[in-house]
Write a structure and sequence with these properties.
alpha+beta, Rossmann fold, Methionyl-tRNA Fmet Formyltransferase, Chain A, domain 2, 2 domains, 7-stranded mixed β-sheet, 4-stranded antiparallel β-sheet, 26% helix, 25% strand
Length: 312
């Protein structure tokens, strides 16, 4: 059995990784000796160079932050070897770790993935689950290996997908419940109390990164599919369409009983509607390119759309 203050190195980058790192920093059983995150990047309208959320959290606790451009860099490998982590948890780090890196911790790398593996392996499991209309999803803690999310699983938590969930909503809940799972799995590994179980060969599905082009709304689909698609890419990269020659981002939509042709627009006192292959949907929020989000009906009234204009 291991003792308190087990040396770990944490790898992660975006906001959903923060709850896991916070729990491990507070844990009396773990010593976070370093954090690995993606390099500082330009972001926002001001185009300022900013630290990742995980990097900021580590800085606030005086934890060493490693930001290799590539995890295969010899200097990074040498330093990680000198740190001698016994185990290394990973949450949404954002880069593939080569085998030489995977071999360094005695008890390996434990990855927290936001799906019930082997479903939705890949970069966007939450978006894929919502877009596919799944009723349930969850998070899996598994031993990282060279394949894409193929390693044996230590444990899972489940989460119901609500009818109104955006990807941001669901990911927020999974980040919190997944953090609890990750800490308990690390404790179990340290105690020698759990072993990883190989993933089933059945039920494998893949969730590639959602591109901006893939986030475009197809109005020739059903209202239900359009609604799921919009929620699945909210808040990022954001569902969008063109209305005439204007490109706009669209917030979650609500099916109505109205009938319009796919892409046909109707602006009435009751709302801003766009047709699908079934019933029309009402848009509640809209964001014209380069502007702030606003009420869709207010925007449509101000835009004074021509009767022939359609969403495409």
């Amino acid at each position: 059995m291991w003792v308190a203050d087990v040396r770990i190195v944490f790898a992660g980058t975006p906001e959903p990784a923060v709850p896991s790192l916070e729990r491990l920093i507070r844990s009396p059983r773990h010593e976070v000796v370093a954090v690995i995150t993606r390099p500082d990047a330009v972001a926002g309208r001001g185009r300022k160079v900013v630290r990742s959320p995980i990097g900021e959290l580590a800085d606030s606790h005086g934890i060493e932050v490693l930001t290799p451009e590539r995890p295969s860099e010899p200097e990074f490998l040498a330093h990680l070897t000198d740190l001698a982590p016994e185990c290394a948890p990973v949450v949404a780090y954002g880069a593939l770790l080569p085998q030489k890196v995977l071999d360094i911790p005695v008890h390996g790398w434990v990855n927290l993935h936001f799906s019930l593996l082997p479903a939705w392996r890949g970069a966007a499991p939450v978006q894929a689950a919502i877009g596919a209309g799944d009723d349930m999803t969850g998070a899996s803690a598994f031993r990282l290996e060279a394949g894409m999310d193929t390693g044996p699983v230590y444990g899972v938590v489940t989460e119901r997908i609500r009818d109104t969930d955006t990807a941001g909503d669901l990911l927020g809940r999974l980040a919190d419940s997944g953090a609890v799972l990750l800490e308990s799995v690390l404790d179990g590994i340290e105690d020698g109390a759990i072993t990883a179980v190989p993933q089933s060969a059945d039920g494998v599905s893949h969730a590639p990164k959602v591109t901006v082009e893939a986030a475009r709304i197809r109005w020739d689909r059903t209202a239900a599919v359009v609604g799921r698609h919009v929620r699945s890419v909210t808040p990022a990269p954001g569902a969008w369409t063109t209305i005439g020659d204007l490109r706009v981002k669209v917030g979650p939509v609500t099916p109505t009983e109205e009938r319009l042709e796919p892409g046909e627009i109707s602006v009435t006192k009751s709302g801003f509607l766009i047709g699908t292959s079934t019933v029309a949907v009402r848009l509640d929020r809209i964001q014209p390119q380069g502007k702030k989000q606003m009420a869709a009906l207010d925007w449509a009234r101000g835009a004074r759309l021509d009767a022939e204009v359609r969403a495409q």
